[in-house]
């Protein structure tokens, strides 16, 4: 890998990391608005408010960056970066075109899962360091939720890894076949539910339940640091959607994969992102106890059952 | 997601409820939205909308009724008396009020419309015009000329509802003259209906005229 190649890949990932979350955010603005009988942003940028999130970013940059006196200063300031950077790493591991990922490592499945778990640490740091009881409660709720949903998430991905016989995302996407749509369906559902919970998006947004906890771990943040948390949330949607598209929907599999492969991957990812938004608009928030019941009584058993099914399938040579 | 606590038996709950939620939002997404794009598209306001109060200065006699009835005293009136020379030789001099200042402070006004209701000479009108926000609150004090400018935005009164009673003015004008049709008199002796009371000719030219 030459230096130029390295720089090119890094720039490409950074560009995707800055553009795709904004795209998802804009889609959320518009889809949510229409699902609620509104129009959403219509002014910024001229055409159907396409520049709304750019304008929001400019606004956030102009705002005062406040660090509360009671806060644990360095942890507080570091938390947004800890929340954001893991998703950048995860995004660089996801293959979007046949054999093309910004970083192609043999154990990319494990690395993606490990790295996205670190992202949750940012929320925990923010909650702990803010010096605010609402932030602390939000952070603790986030920790409880992440511990619960990490397990079904990993089990669901493990099932796909078993079915494909590899720990590399590129290889897994290569070996994907339409039969997986049915075979791996329970695991796909488990992954999607657990991933939305990992992202702390509605209906699993207990950690930032604004009616109870102001804004959970984000309460004390303002200006650019708050914007970074928001960006982390949408980058998380991008990573999760692309991961789901690659593992369960076959990534670049489609007509003309050699030329249009990346289009199919992004399109499938967008579809998943819209589903995540759709769920957010449609369903009310789960209570804390319902959240835990769902994880331990439904998702974990379902994921284990999927694992057994996959093992049987692999042994029988389906 | 399909779980329900044992005591929760309301509604259908569970999976059907969740799917209904998805279907509802999806259906709404493909229907036209209800948003009115206000600054680009003027809103269609209902008749008798209360936007701003317009003053028809010629009708005002400075009687102060509006200022006195105003619940938050946001109407300011200054006037002085003027003596008019007699119109006929040896006649009596007459006095009339001249309006010097008429101002409504819209930062205080609560848009109750009592001033318009109490005005006995139809000098105040509701206008549906509502775009007069100011960056300085003191600019919301509209003086006589600005209130007069709003008159051009006053719409004609909406048509009466079907089968509604005639307006009071029409009923009064059509009433038979006093002192006729006494009880016990023969109907043939009745004077013709065309005899109507005529309004006394106004002396100062400020007769109620139709503002629109």
Walk me through this protein's architecture:
The complex is a heterodimer of chains A (318) and B (212). With 318 residues, chain A is mostly helical. Chain A has one domain. Chain A contains 12 helices and no strands. In chain A, helix 1 packs parallel to helix 11. Chain A starts with a helix and ends with a helix. The model of chain A has no long low-confidence stretch (mean pLDDT 86). Chain B has a domain of 102 residues: Alpha-Beta Plaits, CATH 3.30.70.3270. In chain B, 18% of the residues lie in helices and 15% in strands. Chain B contains 5 helices and 5 strands, in the order αβαββαββαα. Chain B has a 3-stranded antiparallel beta sheet. Chain B has a two-stranded antiparallel sheet with strand order 1-4. Chain B is elongated, with a radius of gyration of 29 Å. The termini of chain B are far apart. The chains are: A mainly alpha (318), B alpha+beta (212). Chains A and B meet through helix 1, helix 11 and helix 12 of A and helix 1 of B.
Helices and strands in order:
The complex is a heterodimer of chains A (318) and B (212).
Chain A: H1 3-35, H2 52-62, H3 73-93, H4 108-129, H5 133-164, H6 169-175, H7 180-183, H8 185-198, H9 210-213, H10 223-247, H11 257-282, H12 288-316
Helix pairs in contact in A: 1-3, 1-10, 1-11, 2-10, 3-4, 3-10, 4-5, 5-8, 5-12, 8-12, 10-11
Chain B: H1 14-29, E1 52-55, H2 65-69, E2 75-84, E3 94-105, H3 114-118, E4 124-127, E5 141-142, H4 144-149, H5 168-174
């Amino acid at each position: 890998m030459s230096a130029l190649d390295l720089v090119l890949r890094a720039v490409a990932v950074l560009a995707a990391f800055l553009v795709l979350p904004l795209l998802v955010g804009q889609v959320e603005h518009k889809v949510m608005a229409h699902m609620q009988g509104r129009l959403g942003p219509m002014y910024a940028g001229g055409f159907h408010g396409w520049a709304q999130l750019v304008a929001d970013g400019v606004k956030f940059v102009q705002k005062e960056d406040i660090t509360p006196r009671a806060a644990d200063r360095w942890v507080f300031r570091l938390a947004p970066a800890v929340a954001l950077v893991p998703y950048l790493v995860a995004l660089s591991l996801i293959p979007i075109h046949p054999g093309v990922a910004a970083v192609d490592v043999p154990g990319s499945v494990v690395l993606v899962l490990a790295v996205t778990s670190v992202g949750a640490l940012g929320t925990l740091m923010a909650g702990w360091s803010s010096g605010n009881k609402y932030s602390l409660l939000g952070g603790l709720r986030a920790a409880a939720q992440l511990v619960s949903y990490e397990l079904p998430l990993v089990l669901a991905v493990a099932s796909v890894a078993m079915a494909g016989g590899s720990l590399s995302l590129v290889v897994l996407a290569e070996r994907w076949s339409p039969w997986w749509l049915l075979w791996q369906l329970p695991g796909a559902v488990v992954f999607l539910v657990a991933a939305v919970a990992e992202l702390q998006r509605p209906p699993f947004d207990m950690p930032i339940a604004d009616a109870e906890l102001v804004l959970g771990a984000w309460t004390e943040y303002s200006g650019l640091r708050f914007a970074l948390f928001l960006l982390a949330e949408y980058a998380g949607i991008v990573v999760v959607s692309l991961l789901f598209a690659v593992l369960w929907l076959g990534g670049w599999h489609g007509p003309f994969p050699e030329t249009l492969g990346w289009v199919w991957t992004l399109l499938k990812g967008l579809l998943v992102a819209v589903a995540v938004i759709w769920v957010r608009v449609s369903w009310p928030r789960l209570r804390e106890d319902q959240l835990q019941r769902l994880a331990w009584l439904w998702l974990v058993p379902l994921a284990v059952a999927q694992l057994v099914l996959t093992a049987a399938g692999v042994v029988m040579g389906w | 997601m399909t779980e329900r606590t044992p005591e929760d038996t309301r509604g259908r709950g569970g999976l059907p409820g969740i799917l209904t939620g998805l279907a509802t939002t999806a259906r709404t997404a493909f229907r036209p939205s209800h948003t009115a794009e206000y600054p680009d598209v003027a809103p269609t306001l209902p008749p008798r909308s209360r936007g701003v109060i317009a003053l028809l200065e010629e009708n005002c006699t400075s009687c102060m009724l509006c200022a006195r009835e105003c619940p938050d005293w946001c109407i300011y009136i200054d006037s002085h008396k003027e003596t008019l020379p007699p119109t006929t030789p040896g006649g009596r001099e007459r006095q009339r009020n001249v309006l010097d200042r008429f101002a409504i402070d819209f930062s205080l006004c609560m848009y109750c419309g009592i001033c318009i209701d109490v005005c006995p000479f139809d000098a105040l009108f509701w206008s549906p015009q509502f775009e007069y926000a100011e960056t300085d609150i003191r600019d919301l004090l509209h003086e006589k000329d600005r209130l007069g400018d709003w008159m051009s935005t006053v719409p004609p009164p909406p048509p009466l509802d079907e089968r509604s009673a005639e307006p009071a003015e029409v009923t009064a004008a059509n009433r038979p003259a006093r002192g006729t049709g006494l009880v016990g008199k023969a109907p043939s002796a009745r004077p013709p209906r065309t005899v109507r009371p005529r309004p006394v000719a106004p002396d100062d030219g400020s007769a109620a005229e139709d503002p629109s």
